[in-house]
Every structure is written in structure tokens, then in C-alpha cells.
Design a protein that fits this description.
Length: about 425
Amino acid sequence: GVKIATIGGGSSYTPELMEGFIKRYNELPISEIWLVDIEAGKEKLEIVGAMAQRMWDASPYDVQVHLTLDRKEALKDADFVTTQFRVGLLDARVKDERIPAYYGMLGQETNGAGGMFKAFRTVPVILDIVEDMKRLCPNAWLVNFANPSGMVTEAVVRYGKWDKVIGLCNVPVMATMLEPGLIGKKTEDLIYKFAGLNHFHWHKVADNHGNDVTMTLIDKMYQEDNGLPQNIYDTPFERELLEQMKMIPCAYHRYYYQEEEMLEHALEEYRTVGTRAQQVKRTEHELFELYKDENLDHKPEQLQQRGGAYYSDAACETIASIYANKETQIVVSTKNNGALPDLPADCVVEVTAYVGAQGARNVAFGELPTAERGWLQVMKAMELLTIEAAVTGNYGTALQAFTLNPLITSGKTAKRVMDELFIAHKAYLPNF
Ligand code: NAD
Ligand code: G6P
Ligand code: MN
């Protein structure tokens, strides 16, 4: 049978992952699942681990869920390694959100200064995991969910020299699940093509006669609930911008196209209900209270309150597609290989791909229009410098990345924010 190792197993998303595996058991015959965490996550691991075992026990399948704080034990001979860890826990996220905001800049888990520091903390850990994998499970696939998912995947390929990796995000899943209903269609009636970077992509949609329906969808989105992830405030994009673009920007593009509105809203939230991390702490507490219930053996509805809803549709489908060579269409972070000619062939992009035993085979998107090409090239340069800084610990490289980031100002304030974040996260930045 298949051995799965999940790093950050104490995550409240684990039941979502189990549900996805149970659903796909017939094509992906799992025999053991190893949930790995660290000392700080031990209690969560035990609670959610017991819940995960109950989910399997309630299913027709005989699967053992093992809990461990020893990553090496879990990685040994694994077939698939999934990563859903948060370096520094939610307290680090509060700092990523608060500190830039004190200086009038957006604080967010994957965008702006906060997203960059999350990369600084996460890249060294993922590279350690890759080194372990080289020795303990050299044939395994790494399926990454840890954020910033695109940068983490890029680090694995570029610095870990590990190509058997796929980065995932639930945002494209939500778009393809929820948008078709707006025009009375089902997902399989439409042809989707995504292009860009993680949390920075656009997509085009056609019907099954090949006619572009992107603008029809955009019209509907202004009239109805468009199914954004729970963590993103819904301020409408400027209509003229979308008419010129003729593509659908991802939900996270609001931070860039509507920076002022998003910042205003974030600051208001921070003053009242707290930052997203503070809100998530409350949701998580409720979830773990539920998970403690020994009669609960299925994923509770409340998990949909988290921004990562439908995560397992991406993760478990990716694993099943590789294992059974299904060639399913999935939006993944993977090596460009020419799909986006505006970016180097060897960098990681987020695009529509066919996923099978060989990994992802990208659907070519072609060149992007002037505005999107400009954004994309700036953002990729920012990502590459962020990762390089995370690996080398070079202050100048970090400052270059900071200066390039469209959500960060330049000059003395930017430097002050960066320095403050370095102090706040010192314990998790071994390379700086
Ligand atoms: P969480 O705070 O519950 O963390 C998950 C677990 O990781 C915790 O139990 C923690 O103890 C553990 N952990 C921390 N450092 C570790 C390490 N070095 N090794 C092993 N385990 C470690 O986080 P969460 O809210 O479940 O999110 C997990 C990750 O997934 C985060 O990075 C988050 O940003 C990401 N995420 C990604 C998407 C996506 O679309 N790709 C969506 C939602 C969340
Ligand atoms: C989704 C994203 C994730 C993001 C998460 C936050 O929008 O795809 O990458 O980080 O939700 O969710 P949370 O509930 O933790 O705020
Ligand atoms: Mn995401």
C-alpha cells in the first residue's frame, strides 16, 4: 500500500485531507499515514490525529494513522510527502500582519512584507525536509501546501534540486468550482486556463464549443456572490480594468489592484476583530473543541470557515493523479518549461497542467498582455530575491526584494519595518 507522510500533521486541516483520501481510496490504496509535528504542536497532533483515525475507522478501509514528532521515522520509505506546517505558529503570523500595518502597509500571510517573512522562515525548513527526503525516501513526491506555496515550491526546485514537487493552493479550485454556476454551467462544461504565480494569477474561460466566456462571467461576478476564500475582503475590481484585461484576476489581486481599499479594511479589522491570525486562533480553538469529541468521525462544517477550504480536492487529487497516472487537469505550482514565455523556463509558475505519473505537464498559456507581463516579471523577481535572501541570509538581497515588492514602500520606513520584522522573528531565521 501507499505510505503518506504529512508534515504539520497537527493542522486543523488534517480532517479535510483525510476526507479527500477516504473519498479516493479505490484509486489510491493507502496503507499508512504518518502525521508529523513538533513539540509545540504535540497537543494539537494528538487531538486531530485521534480524530483522523476515527474517520478511517468509520470508513470501510483499514488504514493506520501514526503520530510522531520524529520526522525521519515518518519519511522513511514514504511514497508521498505532504507539507502543511506553519513555522512560528499563528503568533508569527500575527506579527507579519501587525508590524507592516503599524507603518501603513498591508500585513498579510502571503503578500507584502508579511508574506516575505513567512518565506524567510519557511524556506530553511522545507530545504531541510528535502535533504531528509534524499536519504529516506528518494522516490517520493513532495506535495506542498505550506505558504507562500509558490515561493516554497521554487525553493525546493532551485535550491533543493528536487524536481518531484508540486505546489498547491485552493484558490483555483474554488474558482473552477464556484464560477460555472454563475452562468448556469458545470465545471466540466467549461475550459479553464490559468497563468501566473501563486496568489497572483489570472484565468480565461471558454465554453465547450471553444467560445470565450470570460467577460460573461465577469459581468455575473459584479451581480452575485462570487465565492471568494473566507480570508479575503470582497471589494470589487474596477470594471474598466477588467474590460481591458479580459481575464479574471485571482482573489489576491485585490491587494494589488485595490491596495487602498484593502489596506483601509485591514486596518479597520485590526482595530476591531483583530488580524486574520487572531480570528483564525478563535476558529481553530472551536475546531479543536469539536475534534476532541470522541463521537465525531467526519469533517465538521466549521472547517469551511478557514481560507483553505477545498484544499484536499487539490492535494488528494494531485496524489491520486500521480499514483494512478490519471492526467487530471489541476492548477499547480511547477516549473514553467515555456508555458509562460514571459518568464524564464526554469522558474516556478502557477498554471493549468495535466498531472500524471510524470508529474505536471503544463498547458501553454502564451505571452501575457503588457500590464500583466510587467506585474508578473516584477513579482517573480521579488520572489526569486526573497528566496535567495532566505537561503544566503544576505541583508542587501532582502532589502532589494523588499524594495521591489509593490506592497512595500521604499526608503527609511521600509528599512525600519524590515528590521523590526527581523527582530520579531529572530528565533526562526537561522540564516540571517
Ligand atoms: P497551523 O498553525 O495549524 O500549523 C500546522 C502545524 O504545523 C502545527 O500543528 C504546527 O505545530 C506545525 N509545525 C510548525 N513548525 C513545524 C515544523 N518545523 N515541522 C513540522 N511541523 C511544524 O497552520 P495551518 O493554518 O493549518 O496552515 C498550515 C500551512 O498551510 C501554513 O503554512 C498555511 O499558510 C498553509 N496554507 C496554505 C494554503 C494554500 O492555499 N496553499 C491554504 C491554507 C493554509
Ligand atoms: C486561502 C489561501 C491560502 C491562505 C489561506 C488563509 O485563501 O489559498 O493560501 O493562506 O486561505 O486562510 P486562513 O483561514 O488561515 O486565513
Ligand atoms: Mn493559497
